[in-house]
Amino acid sequence: MIIVWVVIKILIAILVGYLLGSANTSLIVGKFYGIDVRKHGSGNAGLTNTLRTIGKIAALLVILGDLLKGVLSCLIGYFILKDIQSVEFMTIETPSNLGMFFGGLGAILGHNWPLYFRFKGGKGILTTFSVVMMTAPYIGLILLGIFIIIVAITRYVSLGSIIGSALFPVFIAVFYKNILFIIFALFLAVLAIGRHNQNIVRLLNGTESKLGLKKKA
User: Which residues contact 136 (CB under 8 A, 6 or more apart)?
Assistant: First the structure.
């Protein structure tokens, strides 16, 4: 019965995170401007395409919204699963923020495949970053610095996102050495990089758009 109850709580944390994450900020902000960002620019319902298609103010609102839903999902997941470490059957060491893993994962899944927008969302990088900051803040700051340097040098936002995502599980393995944390980090990295499959193709072909080149709607 204990195992069943824990599984139920995990599913609840993921579901709540998913419902919050499904509130795709780019699409919501776009509605106020009368623009569906999925029909313009790169077709991605995310920050970069919102910046190029609508502008800076809209992009700022997207940043705030995407970060907030990741933070809220992590906090809700934490409180739902805060007593999971007391479960005796858990033979693997469980991090105190395990609930944040599931709540945050739900938010990322919701952002990428939103229930309210026909499962067509963005790449989830901002929401993923907020989850990283909630679960491993120091590593999150390091990855942010790496991202900024890469984008400043290359002007490719996608490249900075891909490299930052790939380094996340590496840093977790080095600094935390917790198998559950490593699996979680690997899963987030695969999700983030997988959502950049078209960007990877364009980077290899030399056709990827650089930051600062605005595509008007």
Answer: 171, 172, 175, 176, 181
Closest by CA to 142, choosing from 106, 97, 172, is 172
SS3 199: helix
CB-side neighbour CA atoms (13 Å) of 120? 10
What are the domain boundaries of the chain?
2-115+123-205
pTM for the complete prediction? 0.86
Measured between its terminal Cα atoms, the distance across the chain in Å is 55
Q: How many Å apart are CA 44 and CA 121, to the nearest integer? A: 7
pLDDT tens track for 117-176: 888 888 889 999 999 999 999 999 999 999 999 999 999 999 999 999 999 999 999 998
Q: In this structure, are residues 71 and 130 in contact, taking their beta carbons and an 8 Å threshold?
A: yes
Distances (CA, A) of 7 to 10, 84, 215: 5, 10, 46
CB within 8 Å of 53: residues ≥ 6 apart: 30, 35, 37, 40, 41, 214, 215, 216, 217
